[in-house]
Amino acid sequence: MELRHYLSVADYAVIAVFLLFSVAIGIKFRLSGNRQQTVLEYLFAGKNMSTLPVVLSIIATLTATGTMISTPAEVYRYGIQHLITPFGTAFGMYLSSHLYVPVYFQCGVSTAYEFLEMRYGKNTRYAISAIFLIQTVLIVSSVLLGPALALSAVTNLSISTSIFLVGGVCTFYCTLGGLKAVLWTDVLQAMLMFTCVIAFFSAGLVDTGGVFKIYERAIEGKRMNLFNFRLDFMTRYTFWNCLFRGFVHGLGSYGTGQMEVQRMLSLKTSDKASRALQISILPILLLHVMCNSAGLILYSLFHFCDPILNTNQTKLTKYDQMVPYYIVNRFSSYPGLTGLCISGIFSGSLSTVSSALNSLSTVTVVDYIQPLFPGMTESKNVFLAKLLCFLYGIVGIGITYIFLNVQSLKQFVTSITVFEGSILAVFLIGILTRKADDNCIIFGTVLSVPIIAWLSFGALFSGYKEPPLALNNHLSAINSSSQMPNFTTRCIDESTNIQTTILLPTYKSDIFVLYKISFQWLPVLSFFCTSFMIFLMIIITGWNKNAINFNSKCLSPMTRFWIKEQKQTDESFLPANDIDLQKQIVSNPDHTTTLLPDTI
Prior knowledge:
Blueprint: H1 9-30, H2 39-44, H3 51-61, H4 65-78, H5 84-99, H6 101-107, H7 112-119, H8 122-154, H9 159-208, H10 211-220, H11 239-253, H12 258-265, H13 270-302, H14 311-314, H15 322-330, H16 337-372, H17 378-400, H18 409-416, H19 420-432, H20 438-460, H21 486-494, H22 522-542, E1 545-546, H23 582-587, E2 596-597
Antiparallel strand pairs: 1-2
């Protein structure tokens, strides 16, 4: 007998209202204000947004569906060690608010990569922004895959149809409404995300018998492996790779990623932007902690009745489908509640995709089209921004179909965002030191990025699967349990396979050893590899030379606490790379950075 519920008419109605409301927001902002006549209005919301929607948008932007469905699935299979990651992220976000945000405002930039030209040169700006464009298109694809898996678990819609539906709606309202539509839909989506997680927790605590029962079963299943301090690069999750991965993510994505930077640049002042990022830390940490803890709830619910091992009854094929499967079965008797929770799962993807499309359009217009065609009118720039937003959406939807067979959303997303470590290295060296010029960055990046790309995508497509902790199907052990939900009890009573099935470690002998490195380490290795290559080029070109003045606005205010004052006079410094002469940089296509001797 198939143990599976589907969405009711009321649930479909709730989801439809949610999607239509998102579209309505796009239409509203297309027809309001100054009707998006300028790039500033369309791409940056006129730089007059209030703090609350920006905070909620920061929360929602990078909290994709993958966080809500793949993180619990990872904890279910590999234990709670992943919980360390959001704490590293929180620390990285706090540092970003002090390191990067003041620099962007004192430089007066529109994109994070515009700053790179001021600090290094045009070649660095084009190279790093190109990496961002490629990576973000892949992010759009990975994020669209999450709600498609959720829909396929609870409806008769195919994964292909789900991808087209969610991607199409998101592309439409983002193209039509610009950044204001993205920010205000993020407000709605952030609220729905928390609603979904809270509903899941409330039901899960009741069905499992409470916190102590969850903890007891997690101990029995060896899921409480929170402090694994082994420095093992092959283990999927350890304390160290989770901590450093979270830190690189917080410092990189929230400090140098255009998706988050653009939200902060929509505020009027640096202080407001820094405060918005700091305020968002606590709710982001809370949401991620709850998503990790949801994995322990799943294990307590299914620790003797794994839904994938019972695929004949559940029809599930991927562990990333477990959260929507539980939601639809648990809330099927409450009309509309399942639809509300599924909308919450969609919200993560819609927010991330819309933010990605808006950022892709912004970077293409500001970093490529405007410098190459400086005489283009505002109306043409706005038209191109909308057209690019639409085209990027279509490309993202198309690429999604290539990755339908990936086994873990978490690994997939981390693998394609691996270059955030390389981008972080370029930014940190730029704001914390006076070393490195355009040539050092280009050579260092060209030498390191191919190595990281090889490791990341080689591991993703190698077929290697990290063996999980034991997953049992000992069905007779809990027949008498009164705490389990009805659909799990039926799974136990109606199955004829009353035995224990344990998923044992399986290795392929032909897998290259470096492809077995945990994907959690890859962004960290990307950061150190790129940093090493850049500093190697600095040593080769002359360590005792500086590329910018000690009082350059390209340096972070925090840098002034430890950098010594330059003893040479300002007249001996070539000012073409200083922010005060930004117009000279833009107007001089042959600008190159001249290194200055270090007199410290």
